Amino acid sequence: MIGVLRVNDELGRRLIVILKSYPCSWGRCVFCPFAVEQSVNIRDIIETNNAVINEALARLAEEDVERVSVFNGSSFHELPLDTVLKLKPLAKGRILDIEERSEYVTEDALRGIVDLLKPEELVVRVGFEVWDEELREGYLRKGMPNSEVLRLAKLRRELRELGLPIKVYVYVLFGIKGIPEDKVMESVRRFKELFDGVIAVKYRRYFPNHPEEVSVSGELRKFLEESADLVDWGEGEEWEIGQAPARSSAEPAHY
Q1: Is this prediction's pTM over 0.85?
Q2: Which of 43, 31, 15 is nearest to 203 (CA)?
Q3: Is the four-CA dihedral 211, 217, 220, 224 of positive or negative sign?
Q4: What pLDDT is recorded for position 241?
Q5: For 31, which DSSP code?
Q6: Is the distance from CB of 219 to CB of 184 less than 8 angstroms?
């Protein structure tokens, strides 16, 4: 989904702003559907994103929020500069969520975003998905080995010591065939020790060549609701890949 949603969940009242970007530089994760919403046409990307950002600004004029989550199906650094510059009125003075692959997450890169967009706080979400490196690399094909997990954990400690308004959250994937529930629980526990927060995301299968979905036990559901900062059950309009949101989505949605 490319567009704007206003939601009310564990992170508070916020706008979700979903933009179009260039294709992901990695593009090999076995479960990701977002290529269908990406483009190599710079004019298409910029014109689409201008319309989305204008809609987001109109929503803020109706009702302000303290947090804006900007997603683009790949990494924030894969958005055109023209789009990034236009995000400043949305980000300035608010908590700003972005998503990045780990290789884009450096102190200089994050300082640059804060200096440019002036958020009250920058929250960088990284999709490590599972603690077990064999599952992450051999099965999900994430291209983020344990060396990257440890590098970002070290960077997060350094950001804290410097007093910068930057946090690092990690996505943990669940409900996907091939990742046992005990590995999901281990992932939440281990990532919470190293990072500022964990967002658990329920897997949705979009294409026949993607892994199958599996049911979620009551035990795992309870664990995630008690342990994760947010549990995204994949039921919001933002997960309707390739579709635009209905205008009725201006009403708060709940995960």
Answers
A1: yes
A2: 31
A3: positive
A4: 82
A5: T
A6: no
